[in-house]
Amino acid sequence: MQVRKLGDDLSVAPQIAVADIAALAAQGYRSLICNRPDGEGADQPLYEEIARAAEAAGLKPVYLPIESGKVDDAAAQRFGELLCELPKPVFAYCRTGTRSATLWALAQVQRRPLPEILDIARVAGYDLAAVARRIANGGRTPVDRVDARHQIVIIGGGAAGIATAASLLSRDAKLDIAIIDPADVHYYQPGWTLVGAGVFKPSHTARTMASLIPRGVHWIKAAVAAFEPRANAVVLDGCRVVGYDQLVICPGLKLNWAGIEGLDETLGRNGVTSNYRYDLAPYTWDLVQKLREGRALFTQPPMPIKCAGAPQKAMYLSCDHWRREGVLAKIEPEFYNAGGVLFGVADYVPALMHYVERYGIDLNFGHTLVKVDGARRIASFARNRTDGTRETVEREFDFLHVVPPQVAPDFLRVSPFADAAGWVDVDPASLRHRQFGNVHALGDCTNTSNAKTAAAARKQAPVVAHNVLAALGRARTEARYDGYGSCPLTVERGKIVLAEFTYGGKLAPSFPSWLLDGRKPTRAAWWLKERVLPPLYWQAMLKGREWMAQPELAD
């Protein structure tokens, strides 16, 4: 925990954990302000978890969430009021501490000379020079000048962003590329299903961002606040401005934990878990091992979501463990899917239904999880009646695996690049933005109809790399993405149904059926998932090695 003092009455820090609260209380802090909205990061504890621990330790918690780059005058004024009202000293945090420090700086404008504000922040480790420019400009961000300019700017250092950068460099090592991402850790999220089943250790799915950024690529460790596409500029948190010739957008999506009432108050306790969060996947495995009887609920929200098969994977692997332990007969597994089918590609449904019947799973379609009462262990689902009205169905549970609703990141939803639903509006084949010719997007943030999986990003990255070069005049043809996605459906420990398909649900197997028939559960597919795909991800996809991923070029 990196505590940085901005005065006797206030200290700020990057994201804290529940385990840090006791130390803060021991150091004499009496109040805590959270400036980070829930759901920004996969390893981020929810505010309610922090607040409960703070209250138990005698600290007064306050939630003043600030979207990245959205530190406005009203928020700064409220922060200043809190510093006057709350018991002191006060401890504030966000992702890196920068938002909290920025709020403090803007709240101090009428109290201290600007040089003194900047100096105090500098000593604490925060360079707020860009905020001074914002204040001098009446709170508006100037875009007629830039702090840095790069030939190609990539938003997001996840699977899609790093793979695209590596594919670009494999084609032209002299390109000037920058990746913008504030995270310190990069996660192999497809591995979290196996963490939740006790197959992988969590540490096997995480590496430092610094170790993965391709050599020669500039890493701008900051969050994006806004876009100015007419000026070919990206505005960063803290009001720095980065210019570009070509822009690639791939920051992923946002897990909307707050979209389910009561979830943030009970997630990670009371038998409520999710493999969609790094720190909760081990809790899933812990709950699965301890459950010997009772009702186990598994949920799936409305589409789109990342890896549409993941909700089922958790269910099948849990049921297989209970079967092996001889306790499945005492457990009632139930699946609540907001959609109307078990899986979107019909060819794979028969194999999945075999396991549904084998495990005795009760299927419930058209049910959307809307509320969780962790203390009473009751999950509430909304469903449509035959007359078109809505009703609420309540189910008691002993185990609840939740998949949250998912939306585009906040800064994208309000950007000029978004469609009406908030996703980046691109041509599904070229992945070029429909309005801005020097902008491409890939991965989970786009409005294409493919499955949002790492396998899709692996196929998309070479397409975008080629088409960016074409936009720069360095390639004549256009590459096309056919909508390929893959979902290894782990139906039991040691067997997988390997779903591979393109736009429209057309089957697209990578191997001949005599070697691996994806429509059937096979040990070969499990071996691929457990042993081949992780090194393929780390050593091929993120290194620009396009094994079985070369882009299709237009005639």
List keywords for this structure.
single chain, 555 residues, alpha/beta, Protein-Tyrosine Phosphatase, Chain A, FAD/NAD(P)-binding domain, 3 domains, flavoprotein, FAD binding, FAD, hydrolase activity, sulfide:quinone oxidoreductase activity
Overview in brief:
The chain is α/β, with parallel strands linked by helices. The protein has 15 helices and 28 strands.
Total beta strands: 28
Name of the CATH first level of the largest domain: Alpha Beta
- Briefly note the structural class of the backbone: alpha/beta
The CATH architecture of the largest domain can be named as 3-Layer(bba) Sandwich
Task: Note down, in words, how this protein is organized.
Keywords: FAD, Flavoprotein, Oxidoreductase, Quinone, Transit peptide. This is TIGR01244 family phosphatase. InterPro entries: BLH_phosphatase-like (IPR005939), FAD/NAD-bd_sf (IPR036188), FAD/NAD-binding_dom (IPR023753), Prot-tyrosine_phosphatase-like (IPR029021), Sulphide_quinone_reductase (IPR015904). The protein is an alpha/beta fold and 555 residues long. It has three domains: 4-136, Protein tyrosine phosphatase superfamily (Protein-Tyrosine Phosphatase, Chain A, Alpha-Beta Complex), CATH 3.90.190.10; 148-253 and 408-553, FAD/NAD(P)-binding domain (3-Layer(bba) Sandwich); 257-406, 3-Layer(bba) Sandwich (FAD/NAD(P)-binding domain), CATH 3.50.50.60. 28% of the residues lie in helices and 23% in strands. Strands 6, 7, 10, 11, 12, 13 and 24 form a seven-stranded mixed β-sheet that branches. Strand 17 (331-337), helix 12 (349-359) and strand 18 form a beta-alpha-beta unit. Helix 3 (73-85) crosses helix 4 (98-107) and helix 7 packs across helix 14 (454-471). The N and C termini lie far apart (56 Å). 51% of the residues are buried.
